[in-house]
Each structure stands twice: as structure tokens, then as C-alpha cells.
Design brief:
By secondary structure, this protein is an alpha+beta fold. 40% of the residues lie in helices and 18% in strands. The chain contains nine helices and eight strands. It has an eight-stranded antiparallel β-sheet, with helices on one face. Helix 5 crosses helix 6 (101-112). It is globular. The N and C termini lie far apart (62 Å).
């Protein structure tokens, strides 16, 4: 007897979710190993897929081939380090997987039509369209804290910051909490942001929508599990509409970071949300921004 249509749909969903989890694992591996030689066979083994199928599945889920993704990530990471770190161009090149400073310079110039040195020294140059942001953002001095690693469940989303379906992602995460009986006190609502919107095109910006949990969790559908890195963070408090967060980041990176002796760690910035946006007026929303520093 042939399988029912419902059974086929369930099988297709399970397969798709399994592939999403595998490719998310590869993306996380790439994030943490940009300074390594990222061989496609190694990445395929991380996904537990054959070389041939890995390439096609990665492109189908991420939207670009793995080699293109890695090259873009390295260029964009270089742009962030040039703006926000004191590292030399040579050190930046070695730290993100280029063989030499000249290799980085060529890739950067080919993509952005400007040399890394010119981009670093001319703060008025934007390699993406300059964002219109709200003015008058003032921030208090951050708290400097040491965090222990945290266990998180997450849904990986790609698209312009602020325009994603965060409510749907959190609904899936809370459904996972309920199904796996993960509820405890102290579950935190956070988002990891991997890209700078002044560098990365809006349709390529990556966000992990997360819950910090305190019981062992297992992957479920598009919900994945990993560890949020601990270490030293500067924690900024902001009260106000999420639509102004881009200006908050401008104040953090353009004013605070450049005026203080801290260097950034190669770890994503994350936001922690202290109240429920569905029940809170925009001007009363409270957000903590965690900036990873050495």
C-alpha cells in the first residue's frame, strides 16, 4: 500500500529539518575557523554528507555555494576588523585565512573598489549604502562582566535585521521548551548578530534567535542546539524602540570603542531582551547589548 500524502509530507519535513541542522552546524564551524584552511571535504564531513550532495544542499539552504560564502565572510570580517580593531592589515589577513596581506588587499579591492588601508583611514567611506539612523542616542558606561558559557536553543534566520519573523522563531523555541520540558527560572531571550549592516547586504545578514536554557536539550525540527561562548563582555543598557538600535550600535562602535583601550574578540555581539515586545510600548523596551572584548 503506497504511503499516504500526509506521511510523505512528514517525511519531507523531517528530511529538510535534518539538512538545516547539518548546514547550521557547518556555518557555526566556519564562523569559528575562518583562520583555518576550510577544505570542502572537511565541511562535508562536519555535515555528515557526501562531497557532491553537500555543495548542492549548502547552496540550497544558505543561498550561495560554500566557497562563495566563505570568501564573502572573510572579506566582511576583514572590513569589521579594519574599522574596529588596531590589528595590522597583515595580522588581519592571517587571522581570517588569507595567505598574505597582499591576498587580502586584492580580494578587498576587487570587491569594494578600495584598498584596506584607505578604508581604515577614511572613516567617511562606506562600502555599503550609508544607513539613516536616529540622532541623540546617549549611552551610559557599560558594565564589564565575565560570562560563563551558556547552553542555547536557536533558530537561524537570514535577512535584513529588524524585518525577520522573530515572533514565529520564538514561538518555535518555546514550543520546544514545552515539548522537552526545559522550562526553568532564568530562561533568557537573546539574538546573536553576525554581520554589520554597513558591510553585509541586507538579504545576507545572519541572526540566531535564541533561548538560554538550563536543562539538556536536543535538536527538534529547525530548532538547533549549541553553546554561547563565555568570556569578557562590555554590557550596554538601552531603553527605547528596537528601530533605534542601529544608532545605539553606531554610538558603541563609533564612539565608545574608539575611545577605550579594548579590543574585540572574534565572537558575535548579542542582544538580551528584558521585557516582552508584544506587551510593552516601544519607548519602554529594555535591551542589553553584549560586546565581546579582550
Amino acid at each position: 500500500m503506497p504511503p499516504k500524502l500526509y506521511d510523505l509530507l512528514i517525511m519531507k519535513t523531517v528530511t529538510k529539518n535534518d539538512y538545516i541542522r547539518r548546514i547550521n552546524k557547518v556555518v557555526e564551524y566556519i564562523n569559528n575557523h575562518l583562520d583555518d584552511r576550510l577544505d570542502l571535504r572537511k565541511l562535508a564531513s562536519v555535515a555528515n554528507l557526501s562531497d557532491h550532495h553537500f555543495h548542492r544542499i549548502f547552496k540550497g539552504i544558505i543561498g550561495e555555494p560554500p566557497i562563495t560564502f566563505i570568501a564573502r565572510l572573510r572579506r566582511e570580517t576583514a572590513a569589521q576588523l579594519l574599522r574596529y580593531s588596531p590589528l595590522s592589515v597583515e595580522d588581519i589577513a592571517f587571522n581570517i585565512g588569507y595567505e598574505s596581506a597582499s591576498s587580502l588587499s586584492k580580494a578587498f579591492r576587487d570587491q569594494y573598489n578600495i584598498t584596506p588601508t584607505d578604508y581604515r583611514t577614511n572613516k567617511d567611506i562606506y562600502i555599503m549604502k550609508k544607513l539613516e539612523t536616529a540622532s541623540g542616542i546617549t549611552l551610559k558606561e557599560p558594565k564589564i562582566v565575565e560570562l560563563e558559557p551558556k547552553s542555547i536553543i536557536y533558530v537561524a534566520l537570514t535577512g535584513e535585521y529588524g524585518s525577520l519573523d522573530y515572533n514565529d522563531a520564538y514561538a518555535r523555541l518555546w514550543a520546544c521548551v514545552k515539548e522537552q520540558k526545559l522550562f526553568t527560572k532564568g530562561i533568557e531571550t537573546i539574538c546573536l548578530s553576525y554581520d554589520d549592516p554597513k558591510i553585509t547586504e541586507s538579504n545576507r545578514q545572519r541572526t540566531d534567535v535564541c533561548l538560554v536554557v538550563h536543562k539538556p536539550a536536543r535538536p527538534d525540527g529547525e530548532v538547533c542546539c549549541k553553546e554561547l561562548q563565555g568570556g569578557r563582555y562590555a554590557v550596554f543598557f538601552y531603553q527605547g524602540a528596537y528601530s533605534n538600535l542601529s544608532s545605539v550600535y553606531d554610538a558603541i562602535f563609533g564612539k565608545w570603542l574608539t575611545a577605550n583601550p579594548y579590543e574585540l574578540r572574534n565572537v558575535p555581539v548579542f542582544e538580551k531582551y528584558l521585557n516582552d515586545s508584544r506587551k510593552t510600548a516601544p519607548e519602554k523596551l529594555k535591551t542589553e547589548i553584549y560586546l565581546p572584548i579582550k
